[in-house]
Amino acid sequence: MVSLAEQLLKAGLVDKKKVQKVTQDKTKQKKIERRTGTESVNESREAALELQRKNAERARELNAQRDAAAQQKAVAAQIAQLVQANRQPRGAGDIAYNFTHGTRVERIHVSATVQKHLVAGRLAIVFLNGNYELVPKVIAAKIAERDPAIVIQVKQAANQVDADDPYADYQIPDDFTW
Known about the structure:
Blueprint: H1 4-11, H2 16-36, H3 43-86, E1 95-101, E2 104-110, H4 112-120, E3 123-128, E4 131-136, H5 137-146, E5 151-152
InterPro entries: DUF2058
Organism: Telluria aromaticivorans
Region (Disordered): 23-46
């Protein structure tokens, strides 16, 4: 194998005196290092190591992002499976049940028994893939552990009465229909 110095000589980029001077300087530097026990700093080697460290850090960041995306996908699949397996029927759908989803008031049509279960808190509403589904409260709690934004909290009627409420004797039914 031909050394770099010989290749540069052959190409005419350096002369023979310059090559000898560089090799002498190198050998002097090595002798000094051996005598004193110190090592000289090789800038190109340090730069290569720094570049390698940066590349490894970038690879770790990309792997972390990829793992996070895979984890999100797995959680979404678990939620979809829970909803699919535990979906409750809405019944005949003759009563409109209103609830809030974010800032909007939404409506689903349910039967009278399903409405009673919703009002009592035994059923919860889950928003998945653009559809509202009914699931038992226990399953809604499991879904809320994975992603709380999917479960729509149905406000339960407050049974507590303030002591100084002048209208405490006049209860308003929460399943009042017009």
